[in-house]
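Researcher: Next sequence.
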Amino acid sequence: MSARRAISEVFAANRAVGRTSLTVAATDAGTIRTRVHEAGSLRVRFPNGQVDGTLEAVVVNTAGGMTGGDRFDFDIEVGTKAKLTVTSAAAEKIYRSLGPLTEIAVKLRVGHGGKLIWLPQQTILFDRIRLQRTIDVTMAPDASLLLSEATIFGRGAMGESVHQGHFFDRRHVRVDGKLVFAETTGLDGNIARRLAQRAVTRGGVAIASVLKIPVSDEDAAAVRSIQDRCMGEVGVSIWNGFALARLVAPDGGTLHHDLGDVLKGFGVHPLPRLWLN
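Model: Next structure:
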């Protein structure tokens, strides 16, 4: 066996692989978990029980971050009339890769009359990351969804920034089998130069998006009313029965502040306790 092959096999053996599957159902007493499966370094906990019949689930990555060659899968199913909020215990860190991709695959299903709030804490990217993240949602026609994702390029408080790397982030949402929302963010090579472009983030290093389906005029008015109070840039659009808010900020703290206001405007109240820490 060559030295290179031996090193490669040792590297592969030390990669983190995690999977969590969760199914919840509605009962007269509120939403309960009916199936929980955990594998590898992913765990899911339920620290706060229910709030107004909504179950809160907290995902924990015991690996302490992700890097090249790691693979994590999330499979969440919300049954008929069930209500679930999913968040994470801490910000997820994606470290530099020596070549292989860091892969995150999220599959979310929401049944008839069900409601899902997907609200993980921010993802922090390090220089020379190679991340591929996909989120696939399938919904019943009368289901409700709020999908939030926040990404920070480098820890500015630590004097760190992202110069080079590969970042692929794709979201697909299907309602009654029909694709109603598709978005892909791709940054490859000199990420810092791309972020500096006026049409991208104009130098901002913290971005987020919040998608809500269905949406009311009151939701949009509430979010637009807070735009002048935001410390970064926030824009919201409404079409075909759903709303999308986009946020850009110069740092993670500013993004966190603005994102909290946007979520409240979209009716997420109270916010998960861990998310506020």
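Model: The mean pLDDT is 90. The first strand starts at residue 17 and ends at 27.
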